[in-house]
Automatic annotation (TrEMBL):
It comes from Streptomyces sparsogenes DSM 40356. One of its GO terms (cellular component) is ATP-binding cassette (ABC) transporter complex, substrate-binding subunit-containing. GO terms for molecular function: ABC-type transporter activity; ATP binding; ATP hydrolysis activity. Keywords: ATP-binding, Nucleotide-binding, Transport. Residues 4-242 form the ABC transporter domain. InterPro entries: AAA+_ATPase, ABC_transporter-like_ATP-bd, ABC_transporter-like_CS, ABC_transpr_MalK/UgpC-like, Mo/tungstate-bd_C_term_dom, NA-bd_OB-fold, P-loop_NTPase, Transp-assoc_OB_typ2. This is ABC transporter-like protein.
Length: 368
């Protein structure tokens, strides 16, 4: 499938003063597993529906290779059924009066594929999805995870060039979500399809995507590989949206700072090496914090904060440690059983390269 390009795409609904999608530029390469990630109302589902042709943009253009699907300026709109894309909704949208085989064959029947070929193709994808033995059952006789597989099989049967998935796993319990993530990963590898996947679940995006596009308020905040997005967030929104427990933010204000804030501010300024940007805050991932006894000599070229242990929370295989520094709570995580106890005085150490510095506008400031 050629590259999908969204250029200056906007969508504003009648009666609304704000755009649901605002001047969005996005490229989905052939073979990408692109996850559009963001909170509710950020414009990700609207964007997906515009790619599918279920919504028409109020500005910009959408093209696949050299073929223009939508263009407000040129007055072009290609109907959804002519876009050669498959769509799976949050609700499975299975026909309740049809068997699993009939549901799987439905798209092929609409395309007037012959009975023999239709049956052969349905058998193939049902077996791939592990639902072949349910061919004569009805959707109400299957579990949620099995119904999800039927919805995917129906889409795969028509062999779409692009698969558009709108939060397809949100109705499943945690175990089934894990199984279906593995299934989607396998589908992407086996069918080599281009997938655009909408989710608000950061772990779905991190575990599935080859690239992630983070949206907020209808605008693209950052696009990159999962590692890029997590390790080098472009701004405080991206930094705060990804991570559990969330990133620790230490803000610098004009008020008389507490000792640990003053130390963090000095550390940020030295790391900028004379850059014109003014540090407004720093971010520290919980897993970046090392807990040491206060008697241990401070490590050179590292941020150190004196604190006391407030609580230790086991999470099964790992521990979340809540520490207090000058009345502010900071969270650390570890996979090693902690030796400290609530009430202990400790030193928190963070390697220099693991400190994220943001300017007063919340944008990332690159470190030397």
């Amino acid at each position: 499938m050629p590259t999908i390009r969204l250029q200056g795409i906007s969508k504003r609904y009648p009666g609304s003063t704000a755009s649901a999608v605002d001047s969005l530029d996005l490229t989905v390469n052939d073979g990408d597993f692109m996850c559009m990630l963001g909170p509710s109302g950020c414009g990700k589902t609207t964007t997906l529906r515009m790619i599918a042709g279920l919504e028409q943009p109020t500005g910009g253009s959408i093209s696949v290779g050299d073929r223009v699907l939508d263009s407000v300026e040129q007055g072009v709109f290609v109907a959804p059924e002519r876009r050669e894309m498959g769509l799976v909704f949050q609700s499975y949208a299975l026909w309740p009066h049809m068997t699993i085989r009939q549901n799987t064959e439905y798209g092929l029947r609409l395309r007037k594929v012959g009975r023999a070929e239709r049956s052969s193709r349905a058998d193939e994808v049902m077996n791939v999805m592990g639902i072949g033995r349910f061919a004569d059952r009805y959707p109400s006789q299957l579990s949620g995870g099995q119904q999800q597989r039927v919805a995917l099989a129906r889409m795969l049967a028509v062999n779409p060039g692009v698969m558009l998935l709108d939060e397809p796993l949100s109705n499943l319990d945690s175990r089934l979500r894990l199984e279906m993530r593995t299934e989607l990963k396998r589908i992407h590898q086996d069918f080599r399809s281009t997938i655009v996947f909408v989710t608000h679940d950061q772990w779905e995006a991190m575990t599935l995507a080859t690239r992630i596009a983070v949206l907020a308020d209808g605008r693209l905040q950052q696009i990159g590989t999962p590692t890029d997005i997590y390790d080098r967030p472009r701004n405080r929104f991206v930094a705060g949206f990804l991570g559990n427990p969330p990133i620790n933010i230490i803000e610098f204000t004009d008020d008389e700072p507490a000792p640990h804030i003053a130390a963090a501010h000095r550390f940020a300024e030295t790391r900028l090496h004379g850059a014109t940007a003014v540090p407004g805050s720093i971010g520290i991932r919980p897993e970046s914090i090392r807990i040491e006894p206060p008697s241990q000599a401070p490590a050179p070229d590292a941020l150190t904060i004196d604190a006391s242990i407030f609580a230790i929370l086991p999470t099964g295989g790992s521990w979340t440690i809540e520490a207090v520094a000058d009345g502010r709570h900071l969270f650390a995580t570890t996979s090693v059983p902690p030796t400290c106890r609530p009430g202990d005085d400790v030193r928190l150490r963070v390697a220099a390269h693991e400190v994220h510095v943001f300017d007063t506008e919340g944008e990332r400031v690159g470190l030397s």
